Amino acid sequence: QVQLVESGGGLVQAGGSLRLSCAASGRSFSSYTMGWFRQAPGKEREFVARIRWSGSSTYYTDSVKGRFTISRDNAGNTVYLQMISLKPEDTAVYYCAASQILTTTRAGYTYWGQGTQVTVSS
Fold it and tell me: What backbone torsions phi and psi does residue 82 show, to the nearest 5 degrees?
């Protein structure tokens, strides 16, 4: 069992930056693939980024490549999403999630946080 709590969301102007954090508790955090997803109003929840348990492999959806960076601190049981050059279309609730497999699909993630709102104004 893994519990996840996101923080760091907020309101930012276009071009600004935010860093999201996801604190994990429970067993074996360091063995999980961690992912970030987002859900905009009226849209499906979509994959944003994921990081392998060791941190050696990351993957991003095309729309955030070069602007978002996922990282993790296994000693501190935390995963981060650094976001720069934010755009209004990045506005969404951002969720972190944990998976026992290396995947980008929503169904592959077993544990989910409650989400944190990111709003980018134009």
Answer: -85, 125
Determine phi and psi for 83, rounding to 5 degrees. -125, 125
CA–CA distances in Å: residue 58 to residues 51, 93, 114, 117: 4, 21, 23, 23
State pLDDT tens for residues 8-27: 999 999 999 999 999 999 87
| DSSP string computed for the chain | -EEEEEE--EEEETT--EEEEEEEEETTGGGSEEEEEEE-TTS--EEEEEE-TTSS-EEE-GGGTTTEEEEEETTTTEEEEEE-S--GGG-EEEEEEEESS----GGG--EE---EEEEEE-
Cβ neighbours around 57 below 10 Å, total: 11
Tell me: the pLDDT tens digits for 60-78? 999 999 999 999 999 999 9
Pair of tokens at residue 70: 């996922």
Of the candidates 106, 97, 91, 118, the one whose C-alpha atom is nearest the C-alpha of residue 5 is: 97
